[in-house]
UniProtKB/TrEMBL annotation:
Superkingdom as given in the UniProt entry: Eukaryota
Name of the protein this chain belongs to: Ion transport domain-containing protein
Molecular function GO terms recorded: voltage-gated potassium channel activity
Topological type in the membrane: Multi-pass membrane protein
Length: 326
């Protein structure tokens, strides 16, 4: 009986569990990331007549289409994409410098060089957006997602470049160049797609979003109270002619920025500012500590893996987080 029980336990250990098929580790899986598939359908529970159960054909859990596509891209394409983004940002910054305006006034060759460079980079980003939209499943989910909007804005300035070339009146317009520079600056956000810790940070921000709103509301209330006190203490001096102007000084005081354009001169005003400086330090310290703790907890959850997270349930039905608090 003992030998039979040992043999049964050994056979149960060799049989893979359903969620083990899509995790790294089993020898029957091949391919990186979400593309893993069993080598043989019979290896995972096919019946004797050749039919297999529905669970055998079940794929990995649904994921974001943009994230899935990004995980399938080889690192060479990621390097090329990052190089194009950095080149575009550097080119935009150089074009706005003072010496470049003098070069543009001397001749039109510099203007044409910048135009063709921006048009080429913008066309590449627009093609990338079209390819990602075509490969996404479903396409509407990608178009309405955050990364879909970023990819679209990264390439939409190509339309502005073509329009300026046709109209031939935007090259020397400061407002047109500033508007296009703002659209090109959005391309910097594309660099965060290739940072693995970005997903961890977004998880932590999403979980603490209510706390961030409460923090902003507290800062607004304290700024209004401090602005009213400074308006009363300074008696309408320069920089404190109204409550909104006093609130500007209050925000600069609580955030410890201190521009120096509005400084209280009375003793009462300086005492009030000193008190709110300490309050500002305390307000900034609390959400920072909470964010660090939540980020560490989220990191632990990510390191545990999806299967381990599902198994971390307490007998009483409480979640792992509630049990950890207890």
């Amino acid at each position: 009986l003992k030998a039979a029980m040992s043999a049964h336990a050994a056979s149960q250990r060799t049989l893979p569990r359903p969620h083990d098929r899509w995790r790294a580790g089993p020898s029957g899986l091949e391919g990186p990331g979400p593309d893993r598939r069993p080598r043989d359908a019979k290896e995972f529970g096919s019946s004797s007549d050749g039919s297999s159960s529905d669970d055998d054909h079940a794929g990995p859990p649904a994921a974001d289409s943009s994230a899935t596509l990004a995980s399938r891209l080889p690192w060479q394409i990621e390097v090329v994409s990052v190089t194009f983004v950095v080149s575009s940002v550097v080119l935009t910054a150089v074009q706005s410098m003072h010496f470049n305006h003098q070069v543009e006034e001397d001749g039109s060759s510099a203007i044409q060089a910048f135009f063709w460079a921006h048009l080429t980079l913008g066309s590449i980003f627009m093609v990338e957006f079209i390819v990602r939209a075509a490969c996404a499943n479903p396409t509407s989910q990608y178009l309405c997602s955050f990364w879909g909007v970023v990819d679209f804005m990264s390439g939409v300035d190509t339309v502005g470049d073509i329009w300026c070339a046709v109209m031939a009146r935007c090259f020397h317009s400061f407002h047109a160049q500033a508007a296009e520079a703002m659209l090109r600056a959005v391309r910097c956000i594309k660099l965060l797609r290739y940072v693995p810790e970005m997903k961890l940070l977004m998880k932590a921000v999403k979980q603490e979003f209510k706390g961030i709103l409460v923090f902003m509301l507290c800062m607004l209330v304290f700024a209004f109270v401090l602005g009213c006190l400074l308006f009363w203490a300074e008696g309408g001096r320069k920089g404190f002619e109204s409550i909104p102007l006093a609130m500007w000084c209050a925000v600069a005081t609580m955030t410890t920025v201190g521009y120096g354009d509005a400084v209280p001169e009375s003793i009462l005003g300086r005492l009030i500012c000193s008190m709110f400086m300490l309050v500002g330090y305390s307000i900034l310290a609390v959400p920072t500590i909470i964010g660090i703790l939540n980020l560490r907890w989220t990191d632990d959850r990510f390191a545990a893996g999806p299967a381990t997270q599902a198994e971390r349930r307490w007998p009483s039905g409480r979640s792992w987080r509630a049990g950890r608090r207890a």
